[in-house]
Amino acid sequence: MTEPTGFAITVPDSWFEIDVHPDTRNTAISALVNERIREVPELMPHRAALTRALRGVARSAYANGAAYCGVMVQGFDEALLTASVTVSIVRAPGNDTDASAVTAQLRPLPRTGADSPWREVVQAALPEVGSVARTRGVEDVVLPEGEGWIRSVMMQTFVPFPGPDPGRIAVITASSPILPLTEDLLDLFDAVTGTFRFLSAGS
Question: Across 5-148, where does the E strand assignment appear?
């Protein structure tokens, strides 16, 4: 297979795809929020919280080297339901991107109680890619800039780049702090991650 020129991933229409670069993200996010409120006026009471949530996710995504960031934010009374999907491009240890080699680098975390973190290491099949390594569970996510941590539903999928330049992996990270919806969110994350595909010139 020839070297891909990029990648694509599809999120639901209700999600925000946001600019993560610090020089442009605040302006871009403000414009996104204004546009969405024009489309859905019911979001107006959540305007400040919506903007704050998107900026926080964009800041975290940039700090973790994300090349793409999609965010779900839905308002319910005084609460916001949030989730995000990011894609980062990294080098595999030893440049070995075989699914079994990547899986061997991942560590499960057994459950020690009803509210404790846990992590499963599994193989997943992406329609446009094939078999890949994945972790799924509930983890404590460290926030950027020393802001602490937050316990979150998390799924990470490790997709090797095809082509003559070995060693690159697209890490698709989906997370949400809404723990009561863990199983539903893992199903959603699986569906969104399943749309990932590599792009070649002209595609």
Answer: 6-8, 16-17, 66-76, 79-91, 118-126, 130-142
